[in-house]
Design a protein that fits this description.
Helix content: 25-40%
Number of strands: 13
Order of helices and strands: EEEHEHEEEHEHHEHEHHEEEHHH
Strand content: 15-25%
CATH superfamily: Ribokinase
Number of helices: 11
Shape: globular
Distance between the termini: 34 Å
CATH architecture: 3-Layer(aba) Sandwich
Strand order of the largest sheet: 5-4-1-8-9-10-11-12-13
CATH topology: UDP-N-acetylmuramoyl-L-alanine:D-glutamate ligase
Structural class: alpha/beta
Length: 340
């Protein structure tokens, strides 16, 4: 049986309602989320055993968070209690030509200040078949970077498949390190990477590129440079997003396995209910497809794009959809008709 372990921080999400701006808000809607946990939720919804590893404070906020995680059927055996506070992020929900805005309040959180040895990675991963992390974790703090490095090294030692969503967050890299100083030593262990070509080049310390994703002949050359820098890499995927407005997105995807470029057709998504977590939905779909579709990479990519599109229609961080709903959209049924 597949057992996917994901590692990262879960946060309290406080979002404005009815597309209000921060200065207009009198109340905030409370929910929870975090990139790596969102992936675990998607996989649990698809019937894949998933487990989330994190640290939360031993107080009422930590208890509320664990209660939230438990109801989503994600394994929590390696959730640790410690530190002083839960990370928080505030979301101003955009509309039309006004984009959404995020403000983080996660400095000195329990996760950001996790002490050496808090996680026994070889014990945690002993029954795992897949380990997932993202570029958000090493952006949080020096401590989080070291925890992530120990995790990928243990997963590599145990022969576990490793995936990473690059997830560049410029507002988080503020503890004295830059991505090109940290990410190469982590990415060299990864087998699956999700991210834009330009982001990958930036994080690997390569010269900036402005890729033309419509140019079929140039893509393998650009992707190949990432393969050279990441010796264990098997597949790199890129979510294609064309933003007509905050309320209207065109979503597609590209996958490269070192030999062939696979492309998914663009899908129209309008109106957008909540874009946050859509990349995590793509990542969850990618992992599911690679585990389930017997190396059918086109089907895997189509599933990932369909999952990403559906997430845009759901409020909150999680992609609360079933396997059947994603497969239905993947095969072209995106009418949104009432199911009776």
């Amino acid at each position: 049986m597949n057992n996917v372990v994901t590692f990262g921080e879960i946060m309290l999400r406080l979002s404005t309602e009815r597309h209000l701006r921060f200065v207009q808000a009198k109340t905030f809607a409370v929910s929870y989320g975090g990139g790596e946990f969102n992936v675990a939720v998607s996989l649990a919804n698809y019937g894949v055993k998933s487990e989330f590893v994190t640290i939360v404070p031993d107080n009422d906020m930590g208890a509320c968070t664990v209660k939230e995680m438990r109801k989503l059927k994600v394994g929590l055996d390696n959730v640790v209690y410690g530190g002083d506070r839960l990370g928080v992020y505030f979301l101003e929900t955009g509309a039309g030509t006004r984009g959404s805005k995020v403000v983080y309040d996660r400095k000195y959180s329990s996760f950001a200040t996790a002490e050496e040895g808090v996680f026994d990675w070889e014990e945690i991963l002993k029954d795992a078949t897949w380990f997932h992390w993202s570029g958000i974790t090493p952006a949080i703090s020096e401590s989080a970077t070291q925890q992530c490095l120990k995790a990928v090294q243990a997963a590599h030692k145990l022969g576990i498949k490793i995936s990473c969503d690059l997830n560049y967050r410029s507002k988080l890299w503020n503890y004295g390190k830059q991505p090109h100083e940290v990410m190469p030593q982590l990415l060299k262990y990864s087998h699956i990477i999700l991210g834009d070509i330009d982001t990958a080049y930036f994080m690997l310390g390569k010269n900036k590129v402005d890729p033309n994703y419509q140019n079929e002949s140039s893509l393998p050359i650009l992707y190949e440079e990432i393969f050279k820098a990441c010796p264990n890499l098997e597949i790199i995927a890129t979510t294609l997003r064309y933003s007509v407005s905050a309320s209207h997105q065109r979503i597609g995807g590209i996958l490269f396995d070192g030999n062939k470029v696979y492309r998914a057709k663009l899908k129209e998504v309008t109106p957008v209910v909540d874009r946050v977590g859509s990349g995590d939905a793509f990542m969850g779909g990618l992992i599911y497809g690679l585990l389930s579709y017997d190396n059918d990479l086109q089907k895997t990519l189509d599933f990932s794009v369909a999952a990403c599109c559906l997430k845009h229609t759901i409020s909150g961080d999680y992609n609360l959809v079933s396997l059947e709903e994603v497969e239905k959209m993947m095969t072209g049924d995106d009418t949104g008709e009432v199911s009776r």
